[in-house]
Amino acid sequence: MTAYQMPLDIFYEREARHPNKRFMVQPQADGRVEELTWSEVGEQARRAANWLRGQDIEQGSRIAIISKNCAHWIIADLAIWMAGMVSVPLYPNLTAESVRQVLEHSESKVAFIGKLDDWEAMAPGIPEGVQCVGLPLRPEGRFDLLWSDLQASTPIRDNPSPAADQLATIIYTSGTTGMPKGVMHNFNNFAFTATQGRELFAVSESDRVLSYLPLCHVAERSFVEMSSLYGGVEIYFAQSLDTFVEDIRRARPTIFFAVPRIWTKFQMGVLAKMPAKRLDFLLSLPLVGRMIGRKVLAGLGLDAVRFALSGAAPTPAALFSWYRRLGLELLEVYGMTENCGYSHVCRPGKVKPGWIGQNCPGVEVRISDEGEVLVRSEATMQGYFKEPGKTAEALTLDGSLRTGDKGEQDAEGNLRLTGRIKEIFKTSKGKFVAPAPIENRMATETRLEQICVVGEGMVQPLAICVLSETARAEADGAGRAALEASLKALLAQVNGSLDKHEQLRGMVLVKDVWAVENGFLTPTLKIKRAVIESSYGKHFEDWLQRCDAVLWHE
Q1: What is the pTM of this model?
Q2: Residue 482 has pLDDT above 60, yes or no
Q3: Pair (281, 205) in one structural domain
Q4: Which residues make Cβ contacts (< 8 Å) with residue 393, sequence separation at least 6?
Q5: AMP-dependent synthetase/ligase domain spans which residues (predicted)?
Q6: Tell me: the pLDDT tens digits for 312-325?
Q7: Of the candidates 187, 208, 235, which is a domain's last residue?
Q8: CB-side exposure of 145: number of CA atoms within 13 Å?
Q9: Cα dist. 135→28, 52, 468, 547 in Å?
Q10: Domain ends where: 396, 420, 444?
């Protein structure tokens, strides 16, 4: 194991070198903007750490963080580590039942409660005996203590330095089915990932990031929290969906990571203001095209971006092409909670359509006899908390992580995923179908916002689709016939590129919009296939018998 500087050691170093340098920028609900320096962050974390040390809690105990992204999410995390304890982040939109599951399973002793939309619904999930501490940005409600109470403690005077193999966090996977598993990462996992990432992207103190994807997810944890420590990056936070454009323009991030759904939302926002055909025409003009591209990116707050990354789910090739025409090269990232999100990333100038890119430095990759992608590095988890059996299933004897993805590599080391092993279904004809590649082909149509291909036990697969907001407006008006004709043409085009057993019987346009709130998406915006199949399964036989290319499920 290579010796890396641990996260807290890096923090102490930066805190001492530039105590008054701006570290975090936090917008407030009243429109004010709070700026926190490295010394202010250190002071608050040290006082909270002293309070934790003063509780009747053993070293290594688990401490939960339940909050949307905010400055004090990270400060609480630092305090937990300084106190010699383990942080357990929870998604801010869990049900009370899920909150209880995670807190009981992790045996958390304290929960820091921050920005939440529905604390009233979540609060009943807090087990008896778990102290709740309200962070500065918190919902209405009663708490055992407030962050200000912890700040009455004197700051710790030492600089605790946890060992590399000491447990740092337990990240409960959002999962598409079943009870989430607690992924254990030690400090070396984070140190390796952050050190390699800093060198890979040449991250420096001149960089800025906007934190808006859940910090409880490993991607944001590595991309925002760890890059801020190891690269000295300034962190800007988003206040809300309503202020998101203002927040991103304030930050003007130089490195920007988003899931494909966010990149699609940006695209749809642009096309809602300027028809696709007109934008395509303007972008095709040599001088005007570059100017228009810069103007569009500036409107999105992305004109200063030097690295634009997309990951956590497959990104359609058409989306890469659209942004490239604007002058922004999207680079795909591939990783899992179980390896700190650090596995593969496409390098600038080496984009190969349909392929993710090359493995990251320090990552070994091989394809199993069954076609599964296996990866190994110092970012690999220590295992699942209290789940030795599931840990043994996830890791091979040589320590490689079973990703659950089928894939292949080319001679240059590029990786292409061909489907999830568990998502591949068998039709009634006994033929296997991987839904993800078909969904990616259909995603070239910007009026389709969400797509899920189903087909287990069916004669032919079906595509269940959610229209974009613009397309829904077309469907409710005079443009319905034209929209339907366009979608039929898309279906014919997609089917023409598929083997006979993969071809879609039809497209079903449902009125529901799949969201985290209604249970169709995970907190990381991945489609829950099992939920979709159970919600619409009673209609499958009827839809297949009707044999229409485009069906409207009102």
Answers
A1: 0.82
A2: yes
A3: no
A4: 402
A5: 13-385
A6: 777 777 888 899 99
A7: 235
A8: 17
A9: 13, 14, 37, 55
A10: 420
